[in-house]
Specification:
The complex is a heterodimer of chains A (about 200) and B (about 120). Chain A is mainly α and about 200 residues long. Chain A is about 70% helix and about 5% strand. A two-stranded antiparallel sheet of chain A has the order 2-3. In chain A, a hairpin with a 2-residue loop joins strand 2 and strand 3 (about 180-185). Chain B contains 5 helices and 5 strands. Chain B has about 120 residues and is an alpha/beta fold. Classes of the chains: A mainly alpha (about 200), B alpha/beta (about 120). The interface between A and B is medium-sized, with 24 and 26 residues. Strand 1 (about 5) of chain A pairs parallel with strand 2 of chain B, so a sheet runs across the interface.
């Protein structure tokens, strides 16, 4: 069994925000019901006890709502805004500013996954850069001697094969790479269904 | 005979590609790490035969991680893989005591180094 130290796998997705949201609702809903119940009791006019209970529950509910709002602002709104602005920069090709991971809740894990995605995209681009550089260098100075020319062409061929191996590692959306061609995954499947 | 290998690279695609090269040759991938810190922890717990180590990684780079690993296990077998300039880093890698240096974009060279 392989030990993987990866924080962004779907099956390891932490649910810290979800638990805190459940805690918020599990406090605020019963308190609201308690207030309504106490007010109804108090409206019977038999004692002030219901009013005092309603007042106490209302204070607790207010505290819960204030804390909930602060939590919402600090743990969801602000990190989402930071994530949004970083992802916009990344979509413009600026890979030098990774997402800052402050907590490992659901939003932190999205940030971690975005960083992993950027690293992979950068790897592809650096590969392409290296590939063009390695191929153009011999092309700039093609030797006249046919045996030397054959060597240079063989080098370019090997570089291309390395690049193809790398690109075959990916799984593409609705496209597959096979037998030197790029074919549609979905069109092939629908043709197979029709036949 | 197949070796037990720990792959260290911040790119999940590179880790997958390296595994794809090594596994058909009978080697077993016993762990994967995405930075130097995780590499050190996994090295201590898994005791791999060989480590393939990327150089540029966040949190801790491969050279720092290798120095740390060599400090508690001077017989560690580390192969550096990088897309950085080979001439510039090969000397430093050899000075550290690494098993070898291979270009990431010619990852099959790892097999030659392992078989040496």
């Amino acid at each position: 069994m392989r030990a993987k130290v990866e924080m962004n796998k779907q099956d390891n997705c932490k649910q810290n925000l979800k638990k805190k949201a459940m805690l918020f609702f599990s406090l605020s809903i019963p308190l609201s019901l308690l207030i309504i119940g106490s007010m109804l009791y108090a409206s019977q006019g038999q004692s002030d006890k219901g009013l005092w209970v309603a007042l106490f529950a209302a204070v607790l509910l207010l505290v819960t709502l204030v804390l909930g709002s602060l939590f919402f602002q600090r743990s969801i709104v602000v990190p989402l805004q930071e994530l949004c602005s970083t992802v916009q920069r990344i979509s413009n090709g600026e890979f030098d500013n990774p997402v800052q991971i402050r907590t490992m809740d659901e939003i932190g894990q999205v940030g971690e996954s975005v960083n992993d995605l950027v690293i992979n995209v950068q790897e592809i681009l650096l590969y392409a850069w290296n590939h063009t550089h390695k191929n153009f260098t011999p092309l700039k100075e093609l030797p006249a001697d046919p045996s030397l020319l054959k060597n240079e062409i063989a080098k370019i061929y090997r570089e291309n094969e390395n690049m193809k191996e790398f690109l075959l590692t990916f799984t593409y959306f609705e496209v597959k790479l096979e037998h030197e061609k790029m074919v549609s995954d979905t069109l092939d499947d629908s043709n197979a269904d029709n036949s | 005979m197949g070796k037990r290998i720990l792959i260290v690279d911040d790119s999940s695609m590179m880790r997958k590609m390296i595994a794809k090269i090594l596994q058909p040759e009978g080697h077993t991938i016993i762990g994967e790490a995405k930075n130097g810190l995780e590499a050190i922890d996994l090295y201590k717990s898994l005791q791999p035969d060989i480590v393939t180590m990327d150089i540029t990684m966040r949190d801790m780079d491969g050279l720092e991680a290798a120095k740390e690993i060599f400090s508690f296990d001077d017989s560690a077998q580390i192969i550096f893989l990088s897309n950085l300039d080979e001439e510039k880093y090969r000397e430093e890698v050899e000075r550290l005591g690494a098993l070898g240096f291979a270009n990431k974009h010619k990852a099959k060279e790892i097999l030659d180094i392992i078989n040496r």
